[in-house]
Amino acid sequence: MAKKRKQTGSKGQIVTKSKIQPGKVQAPAPAKKVAHSRQGFRTHEHIVYPAHGVGQIVRIEEQEIAGNKLELFVISFSKDKMTLRVPTSKAAAVGMRKLAGPDVVKKSLDTLKGRARIKRTMWSRRAQEYEAKINSGNLISIAEVVRDLFRSENQPEQSYSERQLYEAALDRMVRELAAVEDVTETEAAKQIEANLLKGPRRAGKTEETEEKQQDEAA
Fold first, then answer.
1. How many domains does the chain have?
2. Per-residue exposure over 95-126, b if at least 16 CB sit within 10 Å of its own CB, e if not
């Protein structure tokens, strides 16, 4: 019989997963639905969780965990088929925020039109910086990653590692733009690409070439 196991993440969130467990397991106390809003967030509202991007608060409930009563935001990430339970008191600490406002959206789109800013450091260090920007949940920082790793048709192709980071950043930006402007993700992606193509020509070798040179030197 499939039982749901709850794990508490490093930043306070509780991830619901399924696991097969033999024998009988005592069922957790049933969750009770509570208020429709807490900490400035309300049920059915789309929010941004830094490590996972755009999700939706499906309900606010109270559960007893390890003898303690906790009030939780239940957040659904339907595209990832994942649900997080975040203590309402921890929302600010984990960086959960509302969708970006019009000014931030405009600035993020303007960022895409700028010149790529690629530091002359090892790719491994830059990759860490890009990943940190993606997981910051900051829309403008995410736009910077999209801008820096974008390649037009007349430019060399991205390396595998570049492509993965680019797609992760693009997916975060597409989802938030679609939610803010109430358009499809396809329409949001087209809007992002249109702004990228307005930027100055980007030149320079790809990280793949750089990595090959490092491998040859090793």
1. 2
2. ebbebbeeebbeebbebbeeebeeeeeebeeb
